[in-house]
TrEMBL record:
It comes from Cyanobacterium aponinum (strain PCC 10605). PANTHER family: PHAGE INTEGRASE-RELATED. One of its GO terms (molecular function) is DNA binding. One of its GO terms (biological process) is DNA integration. This is Integrase family protein.
Amino acid sequence: MIPDKSFRPHGIKVTIQNRSGLIRLLYTYKGKREIISYPLNYFDPQNQQIAIAKATEIHNDIYLYQKYDETKEKYQLKPKLIKHDFGQKEITIREIWEFYKELKKEEIATNTQKNNWSKIDKTLDDNLTVDQIPNYVILLLNKYAKTTVKRILQDLSASIGLSISFGKFRGDNPILKIIESLEVNKKKTIKSFTKNEVITILDVFKNDKYLPEKALYNYSYYYNFVAFRFLTGTRPSEAIAVTWNDIFEKHKKTWLRINKRYVSNEIILGTKNGVDIRMFPVNDQLKDLIDSIPKIDNPNNLLFPSINKTYIDRKNFSTRIWKPLILKLVNEGLVKEYLTFYDVRHTFITHLCRSGKADLQTIANIVGNSVPTLIKNYLAVDDSLELPELF
């Protein structure tokens, strides 16, 4: 039964509203209320499926893919621009999926296609129909973890929603309820290093402590790279891709330009959340670090080239250098627990928020996230908090 006024599909942070009998979507992006209206009868079941598909697409772009189209053009109703003849036979999930890929291949990051889409391509039977989805879910659950299955189903749900929007599939989207039924373990608690732990970690890198006897090079070579991430909160892929040209003066202030990432052995232009460029203000501490970095001749003019003068291999660095060193510090009692190299980003964001020197919207802007995403995924709990006497 369709609610008279408004409702939210389960797990989707977009409201579908009855506005004078027509459909309107309401949601929040970067702390601002956003509205998209469609000239569709609110009480028509087919139109409700279109609205749910659009709401899901918006939700996924904001919270899952971080590729929200601020012009909203992507979320408008579009004519059937792409011809795709499915014939008169019952449409298969494979046909729906291929249609979705045809439309979305230029919008979705290459890494997402490689990691997520490939799983669907490998497991999807060519003759599987929409009403046989439960059988496919059982196959997935026997093969992958629930979190992976949920991501796969979210992509397939989006593909069905798109086919509904284009009139390619006339029916309900059964995956929405299946996703609801999947009990996925709660996300891990966000944690960060303390100030003293950061100082200790940087000291270990700078002075080559715990350096293995058979190490081929000094780990201190990566000190500047690690320190840079602690002082900027950049994603590893962003820090690896920074060039000397990305640091410049403007209006008597030094800026760091973040406009590319190194992912899966290739440079991807733009930031992870779909913004072309993010500007990061360089303070005195960061400027002193940058000024101390020797310029190493390399073909890509990288600020942090690898030993081989190419891009740093993040996986290799994380497993062979970062993890062993942090575990040594944990064993020595100098660091409370092991946190991944990516958690350096959590550490920067957490300490900047606790400093009280900047508001959440400004912090979210310079680190490349929305405020809700920042709070949900990056801000660690302060375990050392002692409540004051209030009364």
